[in-house]
Amino acid sequence: MADKILYTTSAVNTGARAGESHTPDRSYEVNIDVPKEMGGKGEGTDPEQLFALGYSACFHSALDHFKKEDKVKNKSQVTLTVHLVEDPTDGGFKLKTEIEVGIENMSEDEVLSLAERAHEFCPYSKATKGNIESTVTVVPYEEGK
To answer: Partner of 31 for a Cys bridge, out of 7, 44, 100, 111, CB 3.0 to 4.6 A?
Structure first.
């Protein structure tokens, strides 16, 4: 049975890590630049930041799904950190992620349970499973973070 496609999108990049990326309808455009830490000017967004933005939003949606299922109305936050690291197997690079989840007024065990369920459910987590080393941890909820 074929997958039922619910949504399709694409992006266009020119100039690689020192260029520009946009959606075909130009509703989103961003300058791309190499971070200063890697010898670039750091005058734009880098692919790892874009990945972190998308993954954190997707993960938080998965978390909200289970909060709703469990009738949890507490505010929550997801901080997703992406590390670009050397890959000793081929001399290139690979990604590692850290997912930090905070939910106000909940115990660490309760938050971890929801976060682990979200990690199994999130499409980004499914896509990266077995390919990207990823950790999920509970952090205190911080208003306005």
So the answer is: 44
